[in-house]
Amino acid sequence: MSDLFPVLRLMCALLAMFAGALLVPLIASFYADDGLWKCYVASILFTLLVSAILWFSTRRFQRELLPRHGVMLVSMVWVVLPLFAAIPLLLVSYEINQPMSFTHAYFEAVSGLTTTGSSVLSNLDQLPLSLNVWRTFMQWLGGMGILILAVAVLPLLGVGASQLFKAEAAGPVKDTKLTPRMTETAKGLWGVYVLFSLFCALGYWWAGMTPEDAIMHMFSTVSLGGLSPHDASFAYFKSPLMELIAIFFMMAASCNFALYFIALRKGNWHGFWRDVEMRATMATLVGGGLLVALLLWAKDVYAPLEALRMGMFHVVSVATTTGYTTTDYLGWPVFAPVFMIMLSGVATGAGSTGGGIKMARMLILVKQAKREMARIIHPSAVQPVKLGNAVVDNRMIFSVLAFMLMYGATVIVLSMALLLTDLDPVTAFSAVLASVHCAGSAMGRLGPSSSYIILTDFQLWVCTLGMLLGRLEILSFIALLTPTFWRR
User: Which residue has the higher pLDDT, 106 or 273?
Assistant: First the structure.
């Protein structure tokens, strides 16, 4: 039990930060004069109260954060924070006479914070501005990672910050140290994130969006979350220029933000353009977009230019785990939606705001497979696995293999759980992939024109678990369930 006190002590600081984040929808409520400010004030006060209770209970415990504490805190944050994020959703839903159940509110909060973009809400255009701001702002918070923000701004986390950073970082980049101090690294990454956000919002505004729409879609674009305040998603605007801006920022956000940080810090973009993972990600997105565009043209679905527009936008949107749509792509030749959803597992970089397996892992797997095939022909050959000029050590290779094993097992188990509820196989399997990839885009009964409201509470909890496992990258959460983790 004493092992939990350092974690709970840090949790109180994170809850205080989260209460500050709730000021954003509160300001939006005053701006829109929707009369819902009391819901957000109540949410802030309750969150601060719980934070104060935790601080008072653990104020005498000060210990260096160990790796186990980092894993415990990250897991706790992604399970507990959605509880507090769901409070304004619940209060506002009752205030506007569209009451949500706890299951629906928690699902919506997890979907937002993990940048999945699945939703149980409908009639989005009629929802209060402040509620839509909160839905999209949650994605922006979760995009770069709440704990990385905490490392950047809370002196309390200065001790042991490296353990938190490693536990929170996504993909095989956990040991990357961009500056001597992890606090400075976190500040740098969030600085780049904020800069991207500013340019994205200005771009949307310049292209014709209202300031409110520009800000909310910026939240969803740079985080690769994809929630929109409109039922029609990006089709609401009917603007090729806005779609082009969205494509640019979705592709940019799918790259490792550490590359931008290094390039801006050194004033040299040479390393950025030579990065193997970035080039593979861009090639996958552009190549995939052109392939789908060619298919749509060849099958006479669209004229050539319209096929290029539709193919590029939807491949980039789905593959980067964003999920914006301008049409129901389930009406396309079946290869297209299946291909796009498969890409959503790999077409984002480690250290990006996207979900999925990450391109770096796929590159390591491919290179390891090539090495094993070479060993069949030349058993004594020494052939290191490389990413660019960097040699990948065996520990990293085994970590990737373990991740892929647990990833496959997770998808199978969760899919079987949904099939037990008599959900059709296409909907069940694609819903699990959408959840574990934190992508939101699914097929069957959960296509672009559908809402997750059609699922039962049990089915929603299965998808919620998938989103949490995907955001925690599976191994961290599974480690908590092993007896070895809890032994001193």
Answer: 106
Cα-flanking dihedrals φ and ψ of residue 383, to 5°?
-130, 100
Rg (CA), the chain: 22
**Angstrom distance (rounded) from CA 409 to CA 392:** 25
Q: What percent of the chain clears pLDDT 90, i.e. is strictly above it?
A: 58
Among 409, 457, 414, smallest CA distance to 435 is for 414
Mean pLDDT over each residue of the chain, to the nearest integer: 87
Contact 26, 41 (CB under 8 A): yes
Tokens standing for residue 78 = 């992604």
Phi, psi of 391 (to 5 degrees): -80, 130
Please indicate if the annotation marks 321 as binding a ligand. yes
224 labelled as ligand-binding? yes
Give 137-185 pLDDT, tens digit per residue: 999 999 877 656 655 555 444 444 454 445 555 555 545 555 556 677 7
Q: Are the C-beta atoms of 213 and 204 separated by less than 8 Å? A: yes
**Amino acid in position 474:** I
Q: pTM higher than 0.90, yes or no?
A: yes
154 in a known ligand binding site: no
Q: 3-state DSSP call for residue 386? A: strand
3-state DSSP call for residue 485?
helix
| Residue 329 · residue 323 · CB < 8 Å | no
Contacts of 388 (CB under 8 A, 6+ apart): 274, 275, 276
Q: pLDDT band at residue 51, thresholds of 50, 70 and 90?
A: very high
- HSE of 90, CA atoms in CB hemisphere, 13 A: 16
Return the axis-axis angle of helices 240-253 and 182-207, rounded to nearest 10°.
170
CA dihedral 323, 325, 331, 333 (to 10 degrees): -60
* Euclidean distance between CA atoms 462 and 436, whole angstroms: 10
- H/E run at residue 245: helix 240-253
Q: How far apart are CA 247 and CA 63, in angstroms?
A: 45
pLDDT at 159: 42
Strand residue runs (E) in 342-470: 386-387, 390-391
- Is residue 65 very low, low, confident or very high in pLDDT (cuts 50, 70, 90)? low
> Quick one: which H or E segment has residue 174?
none
For residue 322, say whether it is annotated as part of any ligand binding site: yes
DSSP for residue 327: S
Q: Tell me the per-residue pLDDT of 194-236, one tens digit each, with 9 for 90 and over.
A: 999 999 999 999 999 999 999 999 999 999 999 999 999 999 9
Alpha helices for 96-160 (secondary structure H): 102-113, 129-144, 146-153
Residues 180-204: pLDDT tens digits? 566 777 778 888 899 999 999 999 9
Q: How far is CA 306 from the centre of its chain?
A: 29
